[in-house]
Specification:
Structural class: alpha/beta
CATH topology of the largest domain: Rossmann fold
CATH class of the largest domain: Alpha Beta
Strand content: 5-15%
């Protein structure tokens, strides 16, 4: 009896100790769901608060990502507990309900009554008395069986799959049509899992052996990828960020999937390379590193502030061959010709659901078509800048064929002087989904986010 009391007291203390983490998560989720912010940025800023204890950091991360990854399922459970089967709750009440239901369904270490008690505190501060009373009544009726009942009642396998992984049904349908049921299920499941923190080492300043020795002395558990050169990661849940090494230009935060792109371009020392949509310069500086800082890299973007960031990144990394220019990728003007041209096109970002799960609820079918039209224009403009015998790489962080293979297929119909590369040795050993015009690296392949690459070589 005494042991049971001690266990109960310990569980209550654990729950109470997580209040700071919960309120941090609540505010971060409010900005994402009701303010349109991106979770990776908002959560990163929230976790920078030095006063947050490690346990609160873990709680906040667990809740923010967990709620966003399972949002449609949580809403379905909440809806089933309301009298009319509809959700008309104010944003504050709805958010508290989503968080509490997520904990009840997915957190096994804290008893249900303790979870409800904690969310009653948040509701008391953020909601009216009648809303708090309503939330309490709903939460007391929630159980693990609700989730299973809702999935069993789904009318079709497709609807069940979309609900289980809280993804749009139209997205699941498009994925199944292209990848098949098995690969789609693996992808959706991977999207709802945590992932390591990936970084790119800078060979201009440090070797993998030197970094490995340094982290061994610091007793930091790191691993170097055996599949991609200069790729290091810190394991899931470790929560380590090498800020000092990043500032010193030894490392660059970059997902495994996006590191693949520069290896697809495969630039050689002395090449002239154009990154037509450079953004903040992560891929452009990676290209320069692969070239041993010999040759020329021109990084362009339509937004001046992004080219300024790219220039700053080059300085941080000790890259001297990178130039920047502000231009419209659909009409870049006369730049001459390049050995390698990269079009890392704007896209829906469906491959990044794992890192930014809020996109699952934001992406709309109409956006796919709008962006595919823009991508075609960019690819057309880029083709004129590829030297004979050169290479054009078209990449997106989308896994939808409408933004990848369909765009490449239409381009090749108009350009007989280009052909898909039969293979790229740097990528051949990577797990991937081969398509007629390129490769898609799904989240289950990368243990990170997804990306698509089409390598188009121009005939001499």
């Amino acid at each position: 009896m005494q042991n049971k009391k001690q266990t109960k007291t310990k569980e209550q203390a654990t729950a109470a100790g997580g209040y700071r983490g919960r309120i941090t998560a609540y505010r971060a989720l409010h900005r994402v769901l009701h303010g349109g912010a991106f979770s990776n940025i908002v959560l990163g800023n929230a976790l920078d608060d030095a006063s947050l204890a490690p346990g609160d950091r873990r709680t906040a991360t667990f809740l923010v990502l967990g709620v966003l990854r399972n949002l449609a399922l949580l809403d379905a459970v909440f809806r089933s507990k309301t009298s009319k089967g509809k959700i008309t709750a104010a944003p504050a009440l709805l958010l508290a309900a989503r968080m509490a239901i997520f904990e009840i369904l997915f957190q096994n270490k804290i008893p249900k009554y303790a979870t409800i008690s904690e969310y009653m505190k948040i509701a008391a501060a953020e909601c009216s008395k009648s809303e708090t009373k309503f939330l309490n009544a709903c939460l007391r009726r929630v159980s693990h069986k609700d989730m299973h009942s809702l999935l069993e009642d789904a009318e079709t396998d497709l609807r069940r799959m979309a609900l289980e992984f809280s993804c749009p049904e139209w997205f699941a349908q498009s994925a199944v049509k292209f990848y098949g049921m098995d690969d789609t299920l693996k992808m959706l499941r991977a999207n709802n899992l945590g992932m390591p923190s990936y970084f790119r080492t800078n060979p201009l300043r440090v070797s993998e052996d030197e970094l490995s020795d340094m982290y061994a002395r610091q007793r930091v558990d790191t691993a170097f990828s055996k599949r991609l050169p200069n790729c290091v990661y810190f394991k899931v849940g470790q929560g380590y960020h090498p800020a000092r090494e990043v500032r010193a230009g030894l490392l660059t935060p970059q997902d495994f999937s996006t590191q693949i792109v520069a290896h697809a371009v495969a630039p050689q020392p002395g090449d002239s390379v154009l990154d037509l949509c450079c953004g903040r310069g992560a891929k452009a500086t990676h290209l320069a590193e692969l070239m041993g800082n010999r040759g020329r890299v021109l990084a362009c973007d339509i937004h001046a502030h992004k080219t300024e960031i790219a220039a700053g990144e080059a300085e941080r990394l000790g890259v001297s061959i990178l130039e920047t220019r502000v231009c419209d990728a659909t009409d870049p003007g006369d730049m001459g010709s390049f050995d390698r041209v990269l079009v890392d096109a704007p896209c829906t970002g469906t491959g990044t659901f794992r890192r930014r799960p809020e996109l699952k609820q934001r992406v709309r079918p109409a956006q796919v078509m709008e962006l595919a039209f823009l991508q075609r224009r960019m690819l057309e403009a880029a083709a004129r800048l590829v030297a004979p015998g050169g290479r054009l790489v078209y990449a997106t962080c989308s896994v939808l064929p409408e933004e990848n293979d369909d765009v490449a297929a239409e381009f090749l119909e108009r350009h007989e002087d280009f052909a898909p590369a039969r293979n790229e040795p740097a990528l051949e050993h990577l797990p991937q989904f081969k398509t007629p015009f390129g490769s898609v690296f799904l989240p289950q392949h990368t243990q990170a986010c997804g990306a698509a690459v089409c390598i188009l070589d121009r005939k001499s």
